[in-house]
Amino acid sequence: MVYAVFISTAVILAILALTGEGLDLSLLREISFAVVLSVLTCYILSLFINSVRTVLILRLFGSRMRLRDSFVNMLLMQYFNFLTPFAAGGQPFQIYDLTKRGVEFTTAAAVIITRYVVTSTGLLVLSFFFLPRYWRVFFNIPGVGFVAFLGAFFTFALLVLLVTLSYSKFLLSKLLALLTKPRFMRRILARAFSCKEGDVKELLWEKFEEFNTHMIWIWRRGPQHLLVDLSLTITYIFLFRFTLFIVAQSVSAVSSTTANSVSLFQVWGAQELLNLVVYYIPTPGASGATEAGLFFMLSGTISREALGISLAIWRGLTYHLVIVVGTIVLLTIAKRRKKITKEAFSDTQISCKHSGSSDDQ
Questions:
Q1: 308 Cβ partners below 8 Å, 6+ apart?
Q2: How far apart are CA 294 and CA 82, in angstroms?
Q3: DSSP character at residue 85
Q4: 245-282 burial code (b ≥16 CB/10 A, e <16)
Q5: How far is CA 62 from the centre of its chain?
Q6: What DSSP line would sit under 184-227, residue for residue?
């Protein structure tokens, strides 16, 4: 957590230093509370829509979850994405958290992979929409053209791989053989599933078959459900991208060096195109790469002074604050679950004592 915040803060300070003597930090005091509230509202709405997606997909599988629980699950997904290299920790945590909330493991995996496939599709569609309009600005960042191509290729390849794995029993069997071949993997899986080492392969194949059945079943329900999910995905992406526009527009409005000329599509397009690159940078949640990339891409549209301050405010509200709140929420949930486990264990002990006394009598 400290490492992630440190990298982001260091890059923001470097960006502010690059703005030179024209930097006017008094602009920070000019930003009204209404602007901060608007940014937080848009961010919370994006999380809310993302939470609705989980609830709707779970219902397709016959499982139910309260929207409040889904919202917490989504907040902590963002939290773990922000703290792990390549933003890779969010989805595994979601599966773990859903199982703790009573969702069967294979159902949880099918739901999260379905979400991931639809989200990746939405991001690729938006990226290809903005690329013809802003490719010149995008490729002006040194070395980013080749990296962006690789990013788009790997995103598309991973998408195809996940879809193929989800519907092909043959590939699932090959994956199973690969996973269970090393002995240390069998030991890890045996501990994870609380079974004997020799039973791992059979148990895992049962899970894979259930997962395959779930994925085929959701497709047979009709593509309209996935189209609804795609619409919700694009809506939540827009709301999140809109938060930076609110900040940039507000800072530009009070800045003496910039007129009110911030373009929503340029701010949105810069974020979408940068998304092809930043999550392949091995820092926690693309920390540092996001700030630096946006500074290079938008510096031709917004003055450097206004842009540097905008990025500092934006990352403070949508990254640093989420890490603080996420830590509090995670510790609260862990404490509550520990208490429930202790109470259940105590009840079991009391029940065993009563059963022993009856036997003695």
A1: 12, 15, 16, 18, 19, 23, 295
A2: 17
A3: B
A4: bbbbbbbbebbeebeeebeeebbbbbbbbbbbbbbbbe
A5: 24
A6: HHHHHHHHHTTS-GGGHHHHHHHHHHHHHHHHHHHHHT-HHHHH
223 vs 12: CA distance, rounded Å: 43
pLDDT digits (tens, 9 = 90+) for 187-210: 887 887 778 888 888 888 887 777
Return the percent helix, strand and coil in the chain, to nearest 5.
85, 0, 15
Burial category of 179 from C-beta neighbours within 10 Å (exposed 0-12, middle 13-18, buried 19 and up): middle
Q: 285 with 81: CB under 8 angstroms?
A: yes
The alpha carbon of residue 37 and the mean position of all alpha carbons in its chain are separated, in whole angstroms, by 22
Place of tokens 């340029």: 266
Question: Which range among 143-152, 215-224, 237-246, 272-281 shows the weakest confidence by mean pLDDT?
Answer: 143-152
- Predicted confidence band of residue 355 (pLDDT cuts 50, 70, 90): low
More confidently predicted of 332 and 214: 332
Q: Which of 23, 35, 34 is nearest to 309 (CA)?
A: 23
Distance CA 33, CA 15 (A): 24
Question: d(Cα 48, Cα 337) in Å, to the nearest integer?
Answer: 24
- One-letter amino acid identity for 341? T
In sequence order, the 6+-apart residues with CB closer than 8 A to the CB of 176 are 201, 204, 205, 208
Q: How many CB atoms lie within 10 A of CB 153?
A: 11
The secondary structure of 41-80, three-state, reads: HHHHHHHHHHHHHHHHHHHHCCCCCCHHHHHHHHHHHHHH
Q: What pLDDT does 255 receive? A: 77
Beta bridge partners of 284: 85
Q: pLDDT digit string (tens) for 139-167?
A: 666 655 566 666 667 767 776 777 777 77
